[in-house]
Amino acid sequence: MSKFLPEGGCYELLIIIGKGFEDLIIVNLTKYTPMGEYVTIQRINLEVLSNEMVTFLQRELHVSKFLSHPNTLPYQATFIADNEVWVVTSFTAYDMPAT
């Protein structure tokens, strides 16, 4: 069982750190407030997707649950919040070398 609850109110969206799929996906650095842990949330607005795209998204999310590879981050939670699909993944930070 995931330690991340599938409830939008448990997450504080901080900043946008990326976009994808023709700007239909927005990636936010987010704070998971119950634990104070930083995660990323991919937000996908369902209102702008066609029925065909929603079906594709459902298949992708389902197949992604079964992937296991060192170069991919598993989904910690996936749920609907305010007409958006929210996909929660761990936030992996790195240090930039001093210049």
TrEMBL record:
Primary localisation category: cytoplasm
GO cellular component, one term: serine/threonine protein kinase complex
Sample GO molecular function, one term: ATP binding
This protein's record includes keyword Phosphoprotein: yes
Residue ranges annotated for the Protein kinase domain, each copy included: 11-99
Locations listed in the record: Cytoplasm; Nucleus
InterPro entries: Kinase-like_dom_sf, Prot_kinase_dom, STRAD_A/B-like
SUPFAM superfamilies linked: Protein kinase-like (PK-like)
Key words, A-Z: Cell cycle, Cytoplasm, Nucleus, Phosphoprotein
Keyword Flavoprotein assigned: no
Biological processes per GO annotation: protein export from nucleus
Subunit structure as annotated in this protein's UniProt entry: Component of a trimeric complex composed of STK11/LKB1, STRAD (STRADA or STRADB) and CAB39/MO25 (CAB39/MO25alpha or CAB39L/MO25beta): the complex tethers STK11/LKB1 in the cytoplasm and stimulates its catalytic activity.
Family: Belongs to the protein kinase superfamily. STE Ser/Thr protein kinase family. STE20 subfamily.
Role of this protein: Pseudokinase which, in complex with CAB39/MO25 (CAB39/MO25alpha or CAB39L/MO25beta), binds to and activates STK11/LKB1. Adopts a closed conformation typical of active protein kinases and binds STK11/LKB1 as a pseudosubstrate, promoting conformational change of STK11/LKB1 in an active conformation.
Classification via PANTHER family: SERINE/THREONINE-PROTEIN KINASE FRAY2 (PTHR48014), STE20-RELATED KINASE ADAPTER PROTEIN ALPHA (PTHR48014:SF20)
Stated name of the protein: STE20-related kinase adapter protein alpha
